[in-house]
Design a protein that fits this description.
The chain is α+β, with helices and mostly antiparallel strands. The chain is 22% helix and 28% strand. Bound molecules: zinc ion.
Length: 247
């Protein structure tokens, strides 16, 4: 799977071999955890992405609603369950604290999927959990988890460029609707990917729906091959590419 691939909820659950009913899934798979996020207007939690740094700020989750109990949005997000075990908030909070104190050498690795549309998700890649805070918000306390994107080495594949993580959600939603959830070249609705024009080849265009489109895996790959033949210098490194993208 590549960053900005589009995947149905069913396929996502199948690909992870895990029941992803919850948004926060600590240690679900060997070696990594999973966060499901949403930046949509009606999203239940206030997740956010700093588009300059790529830092993901993921909000912790509320306690479940108990019959006769308070509205979960009015009480502090819990660190522990009533039985005294750690909630998902607690597990991730502890992982961040242990990393900051040096108790654990490596940060928790978290795979992130973002909701684009009902039943439609976009893969955002791997992130590292480097900090967590419990902060006041609307008269209660909520957790905020800070994640930075893992910058993989570029292995001759355009999909690994870090800027593709920065296609804003409103652009993704607009593109999804405009292109009807299909590859603009062949109309396939399988293995879709958000394809972004190389901005510096076009004089540095910003990320708008006009330069993003849906392509299937086959047509995305054909495009990557073409770009590689004309822009070999692009593969100098992620930093260089990110620099050109931002400036
Ligand atoms: Zn196609």
């Amino acid at each position: 799977m590549k960053v900005d691939d589009i995947i149905s909820y069913t396929k996502m659950v199948h690909a992870e071999g895990a029941n992803l009913q919850r948004g926060m899934n600590y240690g679900t798979r060997k070696g990594y955890s999973i966060f499901l996020m949403s930046l949509r207007k009606n999203a239940p939690y206030a997740d956010a992405i700093d588009e300059k740094t790529g830092t993901l700020i993921y909000e912790g989750h509320d306690q479940p609603h108990y019959a006769g109990g308070p509205d979960p949005k009015t009480v502090d997000q819990p660190l522990q369950t009533p039985k005294g075990t750690w909630t998902e908030n607690g597990k991730f909070f502890r992982a961040a604290a242990d990393f900051k104190s040096g108790l654990r050498k490596k940060p928790e690795l978290i795979k992130v999927y973002e909701k684009i549309h009902d039943g439609i998700w976009s893969y955002k890649g791997f992130f590292e959990l480097f900090d967590a805070q419990l902060i006041p918000s609307n008269g209660r306390k909520v957790f905020k988890f800070y994640l930075k994107p893992v910058e993989k080495k570029i292995l001759g594949r355009i999909e690994e460029l870090p800027h593709t993580r920065l296609i804003p959600t409103h652009v993704k939603v607009e593109v999804w609707k405009r292109d009807g959830g299909k590859c603009v070249t062949c109309g396939s609705d399988k293995n879709l990917h958000y394809d972004h024009d190389i901005p510096f080849a076009k004089g540095g265009s910003s990320l708008t729906a006009a330069n993003v489109r849906l392509l299937c895996a086959k047509h995305n790959l054909e495009k990557s091959d073409k770009i590689m033949s004309v822009l070999p210098w692009l593969y100098v490194g992620a930093e260089t590419a990110a620099h050109f993208h931002r400036n």
